[in-house]
Amino acid sequence: MEPLRASVRRGPDAEGCWYWRVRQGPTTKTHFWASRSDALRTVAAMVAEGHTKPRAAATMATLGDVLEYWAGAQSERQDITPATLTNKLHRARLAKRAAGHVPCGRVGLGTLELIRDHLLGQGFAPTTTGQAVEVARAAWRWALRSGYVEGQPLPGLTVRDTRPPPHVPTMAEAWAVADRLHGWRRDMYLLILSTGARSGEISALTLDDVEGHVILGVHPGARKTGERAIPVGPAGQDAIDRLVADARAEPRRRLLPVRHGKAALSQALRRLDWASIGIKPFAPKALRSAAVSAVYGAGVDPGVAAKLFGHSPQTALKFYRAVRSQDMEAAVALAGLGQRPEDERKVLPFRRREEG
């Protein structure tokens, strides 16, 4: 019989415990959170008692335990990218926060509804909430297949988006908000407004990504929309000059002075006194929609607009282009709908020439 081998997979956590995996040859016997001394005692007991089957089931008393063990199993996978793993682990933490206390014997549809209602009540987006629900279902399926819990697979639960469409500001409204911001947050805001780039793209920029007043396409958005060079409008050019000068003075490699500029800008916008500004609140993502709407509204060639924003015209029209009542009124006037043509020509029937 091959010897048992214990290895640390993650940790330590806030309580100083590590996530251990115990294997015998190619077979995983158990995995658990424990301190080094407790882990040694557990492995020693397994050797003394001659255990040959997983013992993790005894520790899975709640859905939180299931999610923890499932997260550890995901961390061992070699077929998913680090970004996907990060997303899975984050959604697992959200699900555990909402329903981690539920005993395994009582996990069911009501548990998924608890996750949904808790996260939506905390202000999480329906998409994020739905992903947390799906992670809970996936973790439960994994525990069932592994024999760690007893029961049935969890049913599906659709998380519907009942929120009103987000407000997309006009350029005048966007500039009114820009005047309320200061420092690098204002510069980041102006860069998004001047380029139509995603806030995450601007947040991740380094000095190597900026060449004069053109943002090169080496950033997280390149995987999704392809590499592209983005020309920057006048206000964004001034913002780049200030950010580059500050970065070289510190010095730092990143264009922004913080790592999570996207979250910081979102927080700054939430703290604004929107009532005094006189417009509906909006998030940084709305600036991209405002830029797309301005470009398409100006009659720019769709192919050029698609290259500028890094997505197809169909995507722009479906998800980003904000059509206002003024746009539809202008379209009706431009096409002359409902107007009698000034030069009303009479159409004469064509007569076939008779032969003979």
CATH topology-level fold name of the largest domain:
hpI Integrase, Chain A
Could you name the CATH homologous superfamily of the largest domain? Answer: Intergrase catalytic core
C-alpha Rg (nearest Å): 29 Å
If strands are numbered along the chain, what order do they take across the biggest sheet?
1-2-3
Count of distinct strands: 6
| Outline type | elongated
Low-confidence stretches: 52-58, 218-222
- Let me know the average pLDDT: 82
The CATH architecture designation of the largest domain is Orthogonal Bundle
> How far do the termini sit from each other?
110 Å
Number of domains: 3
Largest sheet: 3 strands, antiparallel
Helix share, percent: 40-55%
Judged by helices, strands and strand pairing, the structural class is: mainly alpha
CATH top level of the largest domain is Mainly Alpha
Task: Give the topology string: H per helix, E per strand.
Answer: EEEHHHHHHHHEEHEHHHHHHH
What's the short story on this structure?
With 356 residues, the chain is mainly alpha-helical. It has helices at residues 36-49, 63-75, 82-99, 109-121, 126-146, 171-178, 183-195, 199-203, 221-225, 234-249, 261-270, 274-277, 285-297, 302-309, 313-320, 325-335, and strands spanning 4-10, 18-24, 27-34, 210-211, 214-215, 230-231. The protein is elongated and about 95 Å long.
How would you describe this structure to a colleague?
Strand 1 (4-10) and strand 2 form a beta hairpin. The chain is mainly alpha-helical and 356 residues long. The protein has helices at 36-49, 63-75, 82-99, 109-121, 126-146, 171-178, 183-195, 199-203, 221-225, 234-249, 261-270, 274-277, 285-297, 302-309, 313-320, 325-335, and strands spanning 4-10, 18-24, 27-34, 210-211, 214-215, 230-231. Residues 52-58 and 218-222 have low confidence and may be disordered. The longest helix has 21 residues, at 126-146. It is built from 16 helices and six strands. The chain folds into three domains: 1-59, no CATH class; 61-163, Tyrosine recombinase, N-terminal domain (DNA polymerase, domain 1, Orthogonal Bundle); 171-334, Orthogonal Bundle (hpI Integrase, Chain A). The chain has a three-stranded antiparallel beta sheet with strand order 1-2-3. The chain is elongated and about 95 Å long.
